[in-house]
Amino acid sequence: MHDSPLSASPYEVLGVAAGVSDEELRKAYRRMLRVTHPDTGGDPARFDAVQRAWVLVGTSTARAAYDRGGSARNGAASASHVWTAQPSAPRRDSRPTARSHGHPGGWSRERYLVLMREWVGRGRTLSDPYDPALVRSAPRDIRHLLANALAEEATARQVATLGIGFSVWHDVATTAAGPGLPPKLDHIVLGPTGLFALQSEDWGGEVRIKRGDLIGEALAGERPMNDLAARAKSIARAAKVKFTGLMIVVPDAAAPSSLELLGKSRGAVTALVGQSRLPGVLRDGLPGAARIGGTELFEVRTRLQAAVKFL
Questions:
Q1: Is 123 helix (H, G, I), strand (E, B) or coil?
Q2: Would the CA dihedral through 229, 271, 200, 282 be positive or negative?
Q3: What domains can you pick out in the chain, each with its CATH number?
Q4: Cα 223 from Cα 306, distance rounded (Å)
Q5: Which of 48, 172, 180, 225 is the most buried (most CB within 10 A)?
Q6: Distance between CA atoms of 55 and 97, rounded to whole angstroms?
Q7: For residues 153 and 226, what is the distance between their CA atoms, to the nearest angstrom?
Q8: Locate the J domain: which residues (predicted)?
Q9: Total-model pTM
Q10: Per-residue pLDDT tens digits for 84-143
Q11: For residues 121-148, b (16+ Cβ closer than 10 Å) or e, as one string?
């Protein structure tokens, strides 16, 4: 149960309303343990989720902290604070970082705030658009925008550590977008290991691979890799460059493994990557993907700089 606007609340996992008494909550926990226990034919993943939910709300102290939007464990910050756009943390070393351009997660956050205000309604005060109770009560499409903003910001923090040999562009405008999808590519990363198009995603659940694309209960028929390939193609044409890798980046818990190769699209290797594995994959390169070096690297960077427009 990673900390996502799309994650089920502990009350939802236990199958009760948030306002139930402590005794009713305890009974629900015991009931769900029996239902989900692997020894009685239950699902091990659901059994683990029930136990994690109980840690969050199983005592009066933990429950009060969770209901306020935080966690009683290890003095964790409130979800509201974590979901708010955070300033860059001060650097602890002097090593050069990757050249970065654009505003990661900016479009998704801006759209989230607009739709949240519309959903709350005119004339109502919205003191904290990231209040956990408010976020959990909002329609899924609004929560998904916030989840994706957080995912894009997390990816940006990861790729910033790659070093001066890499250049990164965030929230790049594109002429290709699927139904209901923003006309942008989340990230472009260029370095000696290749030219990569990255899409940061959080669907609030696990995804699997089928026939070169992703499937999962939370996807609702979307074709993420197909959409990413279309966006990358439009940018490749405009900049006269060729992507060597296309990657969808998801929270570690959402992927079957930290790196899953899906196949190829127009010569580019396609992959599903867990968030924490991303820097290593970009430094080492995707298996089978072409590398870019020497004057070609400089030429590709120059073309992208001239062609890229930000959303």
A1: coil
A2: negative
A3: 10-76 (1.10.287.110), 92-103+153-307 (no CATH)
A4: 30
A5: 172
A6: 38
A7: 23
A8: 9-70
A9: 0.84
A10: 877 666 666 666 788 999 999 999 999 999 999 999 997 788 888 998 878 888 999 999
A11: eeeeeeeebbbbebbbebeeebbbbbbb
